[in-house]
Amino acid sequence: MRIIAKLDVKPPNVVKPVHFEGLRKIGSPAETALKFYEQGADEIVYMDIVSSLYRREILYDQIEKSAQDLFVPFSVGGGVRSIGDFVKLFRHGADKVIINTYAVQENPGIIDEAAKIFGSQAVVVNIEAKRARRANDTWTCYTDCGRIPSHKDVLAWVKEVEARGAGEIILQSVDHDGRQRGFDVELICQTVESVSIPVIAASGAGSMEHILEIAERAQPSAITLSSVLHYNTVTIQEVKNELARRDIEVKV
Amino acid sequence: MKREVGIVNYESAGNLYNIEKAIQAAGASVKLLEDESQFVDIARIVIPGVGSFANAMVELRENGLADGLRKAVLERGVPVLGICLGMQVLANIGFEHGETNGLSIINGEVRKIKCKGVIPHMGFNHIEMVNGESQLFKGIKKDDQFYFMHSYELCNYTDILALSQYVGHQFVSAIEKDNIYGVQFHPEKSRAAGLQVFTNFVNISG
Fold this sequence. Notes:
Chain A is of the alpha/beta class. Helices cover about 35% and strands about 25% of the residues of chain A.
């Protein structure tokens, strides 16, 4: 199981959103990425959380600076709207490109097209799931950092993106993100069961117990951590040691 | 003087920036190879690979990159290192997005991984060397791990340098044949062990 550090970036800072809002500054993306790389992160995820919302192009120099000293995979997303955007991100330090808003709102076909050009393994679909109020165990896809609802059902959408050639899913929860009260276990379990591509569990880790719970119950391919790392609640090494003690395969 | 490593630059080559800086970290300088004439005096060639087989071959055939590569590697014996898809395109044929002829520099076919695990195979994994010593893996220890991200694998039976296991499935993770090297994993994404592979490749003799 991979342990991934996620940076939510509102240039020029890494910030910590709560419910995707209420931002708190953490530091520069390059420093923060390097810190988690040195702590032993298997990968780094970089999300520009404002570029999609404001239809502003992602800032490439920030990405290049962050990638400079990382020798683990670096996945980057935020406002990706074209194959040209994929190319530019790869040329500025991304190993994988993350897409959400444009695919959900306008053109899911960009997933097929990108997979055909860059291979599935480089195309990551980010999902912002929000639990529907009236129904149990149904979730709706949101975009623009949890602000705008779509008509897409999460469990149907994950199957669709898999069929279209996505190589990986980052599964965020609008309800749980940044609250540090644990993952949406049901959402993650059902998603992992629905697809046979890697699912990266995100949103909600506030303690070692939360991480161990999701690792054991949902067995996702990877877990992303952010608040718990920013606030030094746990270190990546501690998480890996605890997972290894439970016979979950990690690179210690 | 620093050794110069040529990187084959095709549109879908993908994470070029990260390949460049890893090779530079291994002590070499970098030259991007964009047409056939640039292969003439190059001493080392790296074929990067984030992409899909069919698309990569179309692009390699444009600008004479495929011809430049074949001449340098097969006629002049220039050491070449294919990374991930860059190793796969060395084969005869690939089955990603249809059936496509490869560079036919080594024997083999590229097929979708068939196993019980989730695909793509994504993450750090071990390699097991099958043929004793290799200059490419000098200094690499048994417990070193490398980052894999792939849905397809190279099926080859004659040039295997290392094998890896994924959910009970064994696949070729490195090949070596004379001056031709290939790795399924991404050394540019594999921390110190990966940089060691680049250093070894830069310093390969012969």
